[in-house]
Amino acid sequence: MAEKLMKFSEAVKKYDPVIGLETHVELCTNTKLFCPAHVEFGGEPNTQLTPVSLGLPGSLPVVNATAVDFAIKLGLALHCKINEWSQFARKNYFYPDMPRDYQISQYDKPTNGEGYLDVELDDGSIFRVPIERAHIEDDAGKNTHVGGADGRIEGADHSLCDYNRAGVPLIEIVTKPITGVGARASEIAGAYMRTLRDIVKALGISHARMEQGNMRADVNVSLRPTPDDPLGTRSETKNVNSFRGIEKTVTYEIRRQAAILDDGGEILQETRHWDEATQSTAGGRLKTDADDYRYFPDPDLVMLHITPEHIERIKAQMPEMPRERRNRLQSEWGLTDDAMRDIVNAGALDLIEDTVKAGASAQGARKWWLGEISRAANEQEKSLDDMPITPADVAQVEKLIADGKLNDKLAKKTVLGVLAGEGTPAEVVKKHGYEVVQDTGALEAEVDKALAANPDIVEKLKSGNMKPMGAIIGAVMKATRGQADAKAVSGLVMKKIKG
């Protein structure tokens, strides 16, 4: 039975929404957080294991130093207070895919304390998201439910467990309650996640592939009558792994909770799950408070001591942050704010920068990535990164145009050939004979034919009326299968009519 929903515009007028995000970022270390088991996405199930990741008696964890340094990098990027002393704790909870049946996390003594992240919204305004902490923990394994619909546990007759992911290092970034979001709650949630994704990629600490589970978020939503009232009861929608899903979860929960409150009902503090198929959330279990996890310091792990000198060494390794980089490239490329926003929203910034580094102009690189390649990606429902064409390929197409070997029409055909898997631009041009006609004699002969077939146009051109020039150029293009250079044709026509 479908839940009752209030119109979003009405809901945000009647209630003040407050959101919060708990984002899990899987780190791209070579080994797990507490053992030397190899980390690789998509490996054969239950092959990336050690006694520690299996929780076997007598096995002892050893902290992965690279994971700690990655956490410090992220803490610096999020303006967090890096605590000199931090501690791992055992979080006791039934994890069917965690062999030792507790998670090693951080609780009251995290590596990264309070901070903030400024995010840019669609209109260019900046919204500051307050960060509560960014702590280190290890991931659980993965359950696959067999026999139910779409791999869900409902209706399944048995489940399979892959422990490869168990013990993979994570950083969980927990925001404080994000207030003052109003009707832009969904937009702010999406902008925050996109900004966070860009930062972890720039830092080189995570692949941040949401579809692979490298990055996912628990989305908290609550409503209250006015900003002056206490926070309302929140729902927590677990493990949402797409930007659109996060935005839609916020919108749906605001509409759902507003309808319940408007009818005099109460909001349950519960976990929920986003269902992409129905575009709705569904109830899970009543939400457990932190006290029920029975946190206590892990007796097998000593406290982490992060010295000021070590933090300074990490600071010296920090790359240029995404916003500063975007501002620099925008200035170098001479783009407007809207043009740069289009590039960022399309996920094309890295590709265009690499294409420029490969020798193309910023204008040419932008034209192809946001034009033909983007259209093909949309048709195939792929990201630009997944398209079978490289920045070097696009730069080569631009060079062929600059060298006069391709015109725009032939360049488009060449790009489509590369996307179809026919090889490099040079190989596609050679295979189909796309190169612009370089034989001046052959081109001149086609110009003569076009002029002879259109004496009325010739008279107009001779009288100074250049508008019909396109008809002659079009005739020559047709005769040469689009392989003539329009500028060369125009030059030959003018030479002919001037006698």
From TrEMBL:
GO terms for biological process: glutaminyl-tRNAGln biosynthesis via transamidation; translation. Its EC number is 6.3.5.-. InterPro entries: Asn/Gln-tRNA_amidoTrfase_suB/E, Asn/Gln-tRNA_Trfase_suB/E_cat, Asn/Gln_amidotransferase, Asn/Gln_tRNA_amidoTrase-B-like, GatB, GatB_C_1, GatB_Yqey_C_2, Gln-tRNA_amidoTrfase_suB_CS. It is an enzyme of class 6 (ligase). Keywords: ATP-binding, Ligase, Nucleotide-binding, Protein biosynthesis, Transferase. Belongs to the GatB/GatE family. GatB subfamily. NCBIfam families: gatB, PRK05477.1-2, PRK05477.1-3, PRK05477.1-4. This is Aspartyl/glutamyl-tRNA(Asn/Gln) amidotransferase subunit B. It comes from Pseudoscardovia suis.
